[in-house]
């Protein structure tokens, strides 16, 4: 296995039509969150399949891919890194898990679009921190206060792993911190995770909403209440809760 072979295999998946669509979908125009990102048009199912073929790529090769200007190369690197983390978890290799976790957080400058964050952070960051103590988990609080858009999104989206285990504290704490954030991608991410909390424990979500819904950006609120009964959603949006 080599990075050159991985790049060659990825190049064969290129689709100019899909690439052109991706440029618009991922907001790559001047001043947009994905400004300057480049696409070749490979789809996620293709990339997931390719990642399984190159799962043994070494960290140096992965870093070259992760630092690429091509979006799909960065995604491929993250998918492989995620697989390597999950293999380490299955084997109870704690040193390898910690290495991948720390490496991932050292590379957030290159994990620089919402799909790259959402696909990878739940397993690598959320999966690593799930059974850790408060001191270790508090790194998420630091990330949520970062000036870096994608670190803030990582901080909330990775708590999906905690929510699965009915552990809501960090989702709620980080949501409170990010309520005042100005970016739409943070509003959507927070609302999404609050919605996931509601799927597990509707009472916890309702208590949070009663305390904070008047301060929540509209997009965040709409995402959070999406699965509630229609009448309840309408009351909340009208300011009656």
TrEMBL record:
Domain of life: Bacteria
Coiled coil (residue ranges): none
Pfam families reported for this sequence: DNA_alkylation
InterPro entries in the cross-refs: ARM-type_fold, DNA_alkylation
The protein's name: DNA alkylation repair protein
Native source organism of the sequence: endosymbiont of Galathealinum brachiosum
